[in-house]
Amino acid sequence: MMKFNIKFSLLFFCFSVCYSVLAQEINYERKALGKITHPKLGEISGIIPSVKYPHCFWVHNDSGDDAVIYLIDTLSNLMCQFKLENIEAVDMEDIAWLTIENKPYLLLADIGNNRRDREILSFYLFEEPDFSGSQTVSTIAKSSIKEIEIRYSDKRRDAEAIFVDPLDNRVYIISKRDLRVNVFDFKIPALTDHILTLETRLTLPYTFVTAADISRDGRYILIKTLTHVYQWSRNSGVSILETLRTSPQVIPYQAEPQGEAISFDVNNCDFYTISERPFGLDSYLYKYKKK
After folding, report:
1. Cα R_g (the chain), whole angstroms
2. What 3-state class would DSSP assign to 220?
3. What is the model's pLDDT at position 190?
4. Which residues, 6+ apart, have CB-to-CB distance to 208 below 8 Å?
5. Which of 22, 24, 110, 279 is the most buried (most CB within 10 A)?
6. Which DSSP symbol is given to 200?
7. Alpha carbons 82 and 276: distance in angstroms, whole number
8. This prediction's pTM
């Protein structure tokens, strides 16, 4: 097993380096905004800027936590936590934003499947909650949460990366552990309340994809692996799948302890990353500002 892991790691490293050499590089400057210190924020796996509250972010943990989202500021201070009422979290892996009837919504993805023991996976859709400075704990009512269940048509998969196209509210999922990752999609609102069976729409020459996001104007897409960040530019009238078929630009990325979250800034240009804190290692909210 150890020999296999070493061989796979070397293959993954060589594959990533070779592909990054082919991609055109663009430069960003990284700045640490705030250190994660609150004990409740030990396994952050997703981040998205708040629409209602400028200079704040929604984050969540993965399999080590309940169905809770946390509001933090740019210094990584915890402002409030919101529990999803009567929702049992298994492995929350990413969070995305979208707009429905001119209202900001959040989409929380319970799609982690490390052991591939789950056939049915869940998304939770709800309006971005209201926050007052006096509250530190609140609840999102079960009645205001829409659950969307999915399965993959061919086999059980693990995934950690989603984003929602702001032009048509189509959700894109990128698998994690395939040697060439698969892209799946579905539309919000879903046409049925039954379980959605998703087909592969596209394969990409990456592996171990841990996060993704799209800019609020829909023009730029980020995909993050363990070792690299890639960016695609989308032309007017071009679909997401057509855009992902083109060659991306590579963004120099300094590896984090366990970086599983990425998000565009509201300016559609800069972006943020944040990491889990494995073994008590330090973790920061980083801003990547385009030079």
Report:
1. 18
2. strand
3. 80
4. 12, 176, 177, 225, 226
5. 110
6. P
7. 19
8. 0.91
Question: Beta 121-127 vs 137-140: how paired, if at all?
Answer: unpaired
Q: Which positions of the chain have pLDDT values less than 50?
A: 1-21
Whether a cis peptide bond, with omega within 30° of 0, leads into 104 is: no
Task: Give the type of residue at 238.
Answer: V
230 with 246: CB under 8 angstroms? no
> Could you give the 3-state DSSP secondary structure of residue 155?
coil
Residue 33 C-beta-side C-alpha neighbours within 13 Å:
20
For 148-197, the pLDDT digits (tens) are: 999 999 999 999 999 999 999 999 999 999 999 999 999 999 877 899 99
CA-wise closest residue to 224 among 251, 243, 185, 246: 251
pLDDT in tens, 63-85: 889 999 999 999 999 999 999 99
Domains for the chain: give ranges and CATH numbers.
2-290 (2.115.10)
Strand partners, 150: 121, 196
DSSP 16-31: HHHHHHHSEE--EEEE
